[in-house]
Specification:
single chain, alpha+beta, three-stranded antiparallel sheet, 5 strands, 24% helix
């Protein structure tokens, strides 16, 4: 999830379904980042889809400053993680963004993301909301 200091722990033996803990995407995000994303600046939530403001949202964002605004945009690009999740056997719902295939066209690397179209049709979620999976 973007942290090069994280120790990679390969799963060496199969686990039964009962050994996995089901989590939600918010569980992967530090509380401060989650709080910032759940409370966006008013101008973000007041923009109607397709409106003039929607079309120039980057310009609006760049001209409005403030601690809450900055914290919101920092959370959108945060790669901070919840260290307690490292090495845990988890189950999480999500969508696959294929990255690599083997000769038999089996996916060998992919991103698991929280919503359909992420990284393909719409902007990606925050880095701490993207799970990289590599298997042989």
């Amino acid at each position: 999830m973007g942290d090069s200091n994280t120790q990679k722990t390969p799963v060496s033996t199969p686990l039964s379904a009962s050994e996995f803990r089901t989590i939600q995407w918010a569980d992967l995000m530090p509380k401060e980042d989650l709080e910032a994303l759940l409370n966006p600046p008013g101008y973000v939530t007041d923009i109607e889809d397709g409106s003039f403001e929607d079309q120039i949202s980057n310009q609006i964002r760049n001209t409005i400053t403030g601690a809450n605004d900055d914290r919101y945009y920092q959370a959108l690009t945060s790669s901070r993680i919840v260290r307690e999740m490292d090495g845990q056997a988890i189950r999480i719902p999500g969508f696959i963004v294929p990255l690599e295939f083997d000769d038999g066209q089996t996916i060998t690397q992919f991103f698991l993301v929280p919503f359909f179209g992420a990284c393909v049709h719409v902007p990606p979620p925050p880095p701490n909301q993207i799970i990289f999976v590599h298997y042989l």
